[in-house]
Amino acid sequence: MKNNKVLFLMILTFMLILAACSGKKSSGPETPEIDKEDLKNFNETGMPIVNEPITLKFMAGKSALSSDNYNETLLWKTYEEMTNIHIDWELIPTSPSDSRDEKRNLALAGGTMPDVFYTMSMPNEDLLKYGQQEIFVKMNDLIEEYMPNLSALLEQYPEIGNTQGGNLP
């Protein structure tokens, strides 16, 4: 009986070592692939941004002075009408700031990330860390293709985009 326990522990240890050395990335959030069907809904220029309405999930910091429902504010109503993009808001109180930080970190670590972090005060260290782990989508090619004004600004002032070896998350 004792030999069976030792054998079982040895096999379990060996399996754990193999799993640790497998070379696979951690099971954190994966970068989404762009679906070709989704691109058909996208307008490269002008408004609306998409032909058929879509919904994006935003995690946003909410101050005590802000509206409890961002979709009821004139600004976000107007953007939704212009773009055909509805925003599903998850509002996180900005005070105390540690609750916002905790919620953001749980989303990043747990793989249940929103489409957009908005006013969530992401520290530069986190941008670098999660960018290197490829949790954030690299924006370089998208900026070049769809944002000529920002591309010109980055060419004029290259230090702005000098993060993560030139990658913009």
What does this structure look like?
The structure is a single chain. The protein has 169 residues and is α/β, with parallel strands linked by helices. 43% of the residues lie in helices and 12% in strands. The chain contains 7 helices and 3 strands. A 3-stranded parallel β-sheet has the order 2-1-3. Helix 3 (74-83) links the parallel strand 1 (54-62) and strand 2. The protein starts with a helix and ends in a 13-residue tail after the last helix. Residues 2-27 have low confidence and may be disordered.
Overall structural class, as computed from helix and strand content, comes to alpha/beta
Q: What form results from the Cα inertia axes?
A: globular
Average residue pLDDT: 78
Uncertain ranges: 2-27
In short:
By secondary structure, this protein is of the alpha/beta class. It has helices at 2-20, 36-40, 74-83, 97-110, 124-132, 140-146, 148-156; strands at residues 54-62, 85-93, 116-118.
Task: Walk me through the topology.
Blueprint: H1 2-20, H2 36-40, E1 54-62, H3 74-83, E2 85-93, H4 97-110, E3 116-118, H5 124-132, H6 140-146, H7 148-156
Parallel strand pairs: 1-2, 1-3
Keywords:
169 residues, alpha/beta
